[in-house]
Amino acid sequence: MSDGPWRSRHCLAVNVAIAVFFVLLDTGATLVGAAWWPAQPGTLAWVMLGLQALACFSLVARRRAPLTVVAVLGTYSLVLTLLISPVGALTPAHDWNVWAPYSTVLAAYGPLFYRRDQRSRRTALVALAVFTLIVARAWQPSAEIITIGVLRTAVGPLLALYFDARRRLVQALTERAERAERERHLLAEQARTEERARLAGEMHDVVTHRVSLMVLQAGALRMTATDEATRQAAEELRAAGCQALDELRDLVGILRSAPEGDETPSVAGLAALAAESAAVGTPVELVEEGDRALASPVVGRTAYRIVREALTNVRKHAPGARVTVRVEYGEAQVRLAVRNTPPTSAAGSALAGTGSGLGIANLRQRVELVHGTLRAGPAPDGGFSVEATLPAYVPTAELAV
């Protein structure tokens, strides 16, 4: 039901591809003489080239451990610089062309973008400062070396700050738009409620006035009529008028009440559904994650009906099965799954034959109305599964579910 595992595999594949790209880029640049490669490479040169490839491949962990990646590449750059000077174990073909790997640019991007709390930011700034000193080789004062080194370690953090600020701005604008939409929806609901109450009051005043006149006239006719048949008919007419007034009073009370009353099916009634099923011998485990308030009324009613239909089907077709109902309330989506174990006995033909057989089809149509998806089918363990993904917010004014 959830796309979390797929998303994790996708991110891992992307990170591996990026890491391999920088491994090939730095290895190729080194071999063609664009870095520290000596004119006559020895064993140490090839060992350092392999270590460079491993250090560059550490970019695969840049999302989960960005500071570790910075530490790995910073350590490698420092060791390489020390081996060249002052140790002198490596002699580059071009002394003026000794630079840290290109991977340092992307490594410097991670700490500020993937660590957003204040404490992590302060640690990241300290780590990047040390990283910059190593890459720029501050102990070898040279305007060209320091400039290029600082640029390599500054581009990543600047891009990270830009994209983080842009992300925050988009998130704030999105939240503001959603809040405005919810407020507009609430104002529309309030206006409809007020208009309903006004119309109910006018209807009550007009109809009550006319029916009251009829009741009074019927009562007067009953008192003044000379024959019994007329008096009986007048009494029946008066009694019917009084009953009509009572029913009108009840109807006006309903119209004046809020449209989303306690009796309206919603996710708040899922616990009652589970209890009803358990009472008739179908154990139900209800698991809810997140805030119910994230689901708008239309989505809540749709989720309620999906669970109700699924539990009804379990009672009909899978006697003795245990059911798990899982509902996840998110900012953008509401996900629910109803799964039952295999039945422990054969379904009764009388109960299984009831209904139209269109329950799942009707549910699918209802889910499509709110732009959601529904999947229903046998589970690998022999049970049955009904899974639905619904948008968290659907205005009541746009859909009548």
Can you describe this structure?
With about 400 residues, the chain is α+β, with helices and mostly antiparallel strands. It folds into three domains: about 5-140; about 185-255; about 265-390, Histidine kinase-like ATPase, C-terminal domain (Heat Shock Protein 90). About 60% of the residues lie in helices and about 10% in strands. It has twelve helices and five strands. It has helices at about 5-30, 45-55, 65-85, 105, 110-115, 120-135, 145-225, 230-255, 270-280, 295-315, 350, 360-370; strands at about 285-290, 325-330, 335-340, 375-380, 385-390. It has a five-stranded mixed β-sheet with strand order 1-2-3-5-4, covered by helices on one side. Helix 3 (about 65-85) runs parallel beside helix 6 (about 120-135). The longest helix has about 80 residues, at about 145-225. It is elongated, with a radius of gyration of 37 Å. Mean pLDDT is about 80; it is low at about 260, about 350-355 and about 395-400.
